[in-house]
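Form 7-S
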Amino acid sequence: MSKSFILYFSCLFFAGFNQSGAKSPNVILMMADDLGYNDLSCYGSKRQKTPVLDKLAEEGLRLTSFYAGATVCTPSRMALLTGAYPPRVGWRGGVVGYGVKTFNGLAPKARTMGEVFKEAGYQTALIGKWHLGDTPELHPMGQGFDLTYFIDKSNNQTKKLWRGRELVADPFNNSRLTENFTNEAIKFIKANQEKPFFLYLPFSAPHFPAQAHPEWKGKSANGAYGDVVEELDGRIGEILKTLESTGLEEQTIVVFMSDNGIEPGQKKWGSGKPFRGLKWSSLEGGTRVPCIIRFPDVVPAGKVSGKLVTAIDLLPTLSHACGIALEKESKSVPKIDGLNLWESLTGKSDSHPRTSMLYWQGWAVPQAIRAGDWKLYLDNIKEIQGSNRGPVLIHLVKDPAEQNNLSEQYPDKVKDMKALAETLLKDIEENSIPLGGPPDPRKKSPKRGQWIP
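Output:
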């Protein structure tokens, strides 16, 4: 018997097991759509009740300085799945179906979280909203997902529901989508009890139009939006109960987050307090969102952390937690901007690698950088007084509403942060790939903020 033959079957046999021989952890990565920082009661909401997610936070880690991958849907998903800032994968503004043609999207050659886990022997599933391209070339089954059950754009942009490459509903019932995605997720979990799985579950709720499920209609004190959020909380409870009943609770890393801040049309009901700004905006409310991580006996329970964490960090962090060694950064496509934060988040290390991050608004203009507790605006933004005259420096801890410009008091900090932003942007511009699908004949160049040369 040849060595290669033995090696092949050894890899098959040990796939899904870590170095100690134990079954690798499962991962359930759940994402709400347009849920604001203040929309869960554990983040301060008084308008709707979310007891399931509150309990999840009590059993795990609640992050208060977590940032989605972008301020709008498509690039946020690109960032989450690839661990890269969205411009590295060719994003130049907008979302698929609005600013991005539906035949463009995440490039097939981009290595996704689905592919990373699948290559490590995991069963993988995408259940929910894709929004990374509509064509067969850009289908999620080509991006590392064994099972797919999804809508390909936002629930206001399409009425089609797909299972694999089969159309299963046209039109779908918008008020039943959360229920449908939950039922499919539970089936996937039950079918994969004996092997490690990675479940990416990007819900469409509470993205507009918010239409309450009949059993949840009128239950909240915040209209249909609140009903939809409370249903989402309850459905997540069904998933968590499934983990408990199958004996998988202690073997499963559960992450809950949102893809960006409140949709402007839903600002009457959604809330990003104490932060200003909405979806599409580089203000804090545009991308600072809830994030909860639970892994019993590994992630400390009942902790709240203000450490800087971003969606691009989840690929390297979760991979490490599951014993998956990512390829060296130089071989990754695209280059990974995310950092492995597992040791810090689990309390095993006082060192926290993430110290800075860049912000883009929804049309891909890089408008700000955060470094530590400081944020520097690098563009003229109507909501930020003085930004028409030069960079504006904000201390986020003391001034979460971003009202006070401290640039004159701290000119050296302005200089250092501006230089860091320029270095990061230069690297992104020099090391990026185009969108998947036909080249854009307009040949869009990367944009720059007004105060970045």
